[in-house]
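Troubleshooting log. The previous run stalled partway through. Resubmitting the same two chains, unchanged.
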Amino acid sequence: MEDAEIVDLYLARNEDAIARTEEKYGRSLRKIISSVLDDETGKECENDVYLRAWNLIPPNEPRDHFFAFLGKIARNLAIDEWRRTNAQKRTATMIELSEELQECMPGKSNVEGEILAGELKKAINSFLKTKDQEERKIFLRRYWYFDSVPEISKRYGYTQGKVKSVLHRMRGELKSVLEKEGYLNDHV
Amino acid sequence: MTTFDLLCAIGEADESFVEEAADSDAQEADNPSGRRFGAILRWGSLAAAFLILIGVAWLYADGGRIFRKKASTQEFPEAFCQESAIQESATEIAAEEITSEKTAIGESCVAESIGMDEECVETVLISSFQGDETVEMTRKTSDDLTVENGCVFTSYSLNEAVECYGDQEEYRYRVFVELFQDGCQIANDGDAAKSEMQRLIDRGYVVVVETIFDGETTRTYFTLRATAGQVKDFAADAKIGYALWLYDERAKGVQAYE
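Second attempt completed without errors. Output:
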């Protein structure tokens, strides 16, 4: 079933929409969630994703980017849950990601949270726009979808060394962008 | 700003980029030229590997001696590793009492045990990688890590070290091992840990148990002197979870060497 048709089911308040969503995207959503949460919490989180989608459509009508819409809900709910439980049981993926992203940190900053979120989003989107498609996909597979390096390597047919190299370079470039945007000096 | 803020901000990436990355596998599956190129790459790699194998066999059979040389510790980037000669039997667990110096691993060579020529080759032992910041952070963020049975968590620093230095014959990675079973960490001085050490020894790993007395308590460290291959393709048991670290990531902070 096409995304637009599933969205139409939501708009018509047809509960079949959830079953069709799970059928089409359940596996991908579970993959994102399971990188952050354990299986039991993850299952609850997946159900929350469908409930949240049900509540958000309408007014939203994400016909063009339905998976991104769902994925973002899944990712945010999973991270929120992880944060709420204060990371009492951290997954190896989250530790790895924290370590890697530490390389992008430009230094101590006291930027206010709300200002930071908006500006950071713009900075990251601008940064991604400057990258070619290949680099962008690798970066997002790692830090948006939480794929491991071997998974990315297998997905695109690159060596793990190449994937690591692209990620390492992009982290360095992102750090430079964040510094240039003033996250290091102007906002401190 | 924290790494968490950054992770959340990446989550707000433009939907078109997110979909682009999501669709890529489907697009590539529909792309016959991409598949052809992938096949050429695979078979090409296999052919190249075969040729290299023949070359290496020839070098060992005939001219290999010309290219082999004694490892020089000066050649190794000092800032990134700690080096020392090691002495160990590949078939025994060596219990070491460390009371004054950081390590007392010893000397000698591993030439005989790994089937090299008579010349003694000094082994470089890699215990840390790229500075203390990552190490410090790792220690802070990983205290509550659990690893499922049959899974292996390899730390970022260890992965990077293996990637950087590779599988050269004179390099050994000093790996700090933590064992888990059903979500709980196993004590290194218990029967289960000892049994697992023996199993790894049987599979060719060099296991070193370090017993450290800090004046009040005695700690037992389970460590390996592993090759890059042994780290990458770790011989995990399905009933045990493993966390593998570079030694200094987990052991350096313990003030037990005074």
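Takeaways: Chain B has two domains: 3-67, 73-251. The CA atoms of residues 78 and 126 of chain B lie 10 Å apart.
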